[in-house]
Structure formats: C-alpha cells, structure tokens
Amino acid sequence: MKCVVYLDRQHAGKPGKRARDTGAFADLDGDGEITLHEQEALLTPRYLWACELALREMGHTVICISDGSYADRHRRVNAYAGTFPSSTPQIYIAAHLNAGWAGRSGSGYGAIFYDYKSRSGPELASRVARQLRMVAPELNGVKCIEAKPEGWTRNAWSTIQVQQPIALCAEPAFIDCPEHAELLTPSGLAAIGRAIAAGIDAWCNTCEV
Questions:
Q1: Over pLDDT 90: what percentage of the chain?
Q2: Which residues partner with 63 through β-bridges?
Q3: Are 24 and 99 in contact (CB under 8 A)?
Q4: What is the pLDDT of residues 101-125, one digit of tens each?
Q5: Is residue 193 helix, strand or coil?
Q6: If 197 and its partner were Cys, which of 13, 54, 67, 97 is the partner (CB 3.0–4.6 Å)?
Q7: How many CA atoms lie within 13 A of 174 on its CB side?
Q8: Which CA distances in Å does 145 have to 17, 148, 171?
C-alpha cells in the first residue's frame, strides 16, 4: 500500500524571536568552532532529502514542511490530511537530532518517539528502528519510546501533535556523541534517511486501514 508522508524539518523556520533557532550543535570536526554545518537544523535536511528520494522511488507521496510554529505546522498537516482518501495511510515525521550525550562514556542510542495515544505508532516506530539498527552499527541500539505530555518525553510529544497522520519524532543519533560522528557525515545522514524510508515502506506494505 502506498502512503502519504509528511517530512518536517523542525527547529528551522520558526517565526518571531525563534527565527534564528537551529536546534542543537556540536564541534563535529574538532576545530574549536561551531559552524552552520554543525547545527541540527542544517544536518537534518540531509537525511530528509535521502528519505524523500527513497520514498518517492518506492511510489509514496511526500509533502515537505519547514516553516511556522510547530502548532501551525500541525494545523497545516491536519488540513492537508483531509484532502486524501480516508483509506490512504498517512505518516508524519518530525526530524531532529538528539543532544546531551557529551561527557558520558560509550556510544549513544538512536530514538524514535511515538504518541502514547497512537494505536499504530509503536509498530511504525519499531519498523523504522529495525532499519536504523541495520545501517548504523555506531548506535548502541535504537529505542522506541512512548511520548507523553508530561515527564521527560514531553518535548518530543509536543513535536508530533497531528491528528490523522501517524506521527513519529525521529532522533536517530546524538549530535554530541563522538561515536556518532560518522553518522553525521553526508554519507551517514543519507544512510539514516534511506533507513527511515525503508521502515516506513515496510510498515505501509503490512498495515491495515
């Protein structure tokens, strides 16, 4: 079955005081400076492009989102969703990179968050996580995590408040984990994007609407 997939490049494109937001950052090349190519919202487009290309090659419909407050984006996606037949599966991916690993020992994990209210979210997240594990040995596993409006997952939950589409918040690697450096290169990010697409395609081919 073919799906409609919304790919949202988050952090960038916010209006007002947050217009310069680019998310997390790290000195990826070790030169003592943080440049634009070492910032989250300038890295996620690389995996989103690979994801979009793979999804389109598989025959899925892709709609890219990259501006507005998260609430505005969610309202827009909800409106778009209503223009497709109810029998068409729809998926929303909020694209991020994780942060906060600096100072810890060992390799960080990948994370796929899904809305705690979603019936199909856990299986979709599992399909995506399975593909990420296959292409990213640098990760110490990929966790599928239920996101709720309270507790430590509330920020992830706030990024995926759409209605009809099944929504995931993708945090496939830690931007500040040294062991993940290869995943944040152009080739590594492309592999992440293709893996997300493969997971989506696997779920679409087995889902029941």
A1: 84
A2: 6
A3: yes
A4: 988 988 999 999 999 999 999 999 9
A5: helix
A6: 54
A7: 22
A8: 31, 10, 11
Side-chain half-sphere CA neighbours of 189 within 13 A = 23
Tell me if 170 sits within 8 A of 189, measured CB to CB. no
Structure token pair of residue 156: 């992830």
171: closest CA among 186, 160, 187? 160
Going by DSSP bridges, is the β-strand pair 90-95/4-9 parallel, antiparallel, or unpaired?
parallel
> What is the Cα–Cα distance from 181 to 107, expressed in whole angstroms?
11
What residues contact 160, with CB distance under 8 A and at least 6 apart?
Answer: 92, 94, 113, 114, 115, 147, 167, 168, 169
Tell me if the domain spanning 4-204 has CATH number 3.40.630.40.
Answer: yes
Tokens linked to 163: 């209605």
| Domain boundaries defined on the chain | 4-204
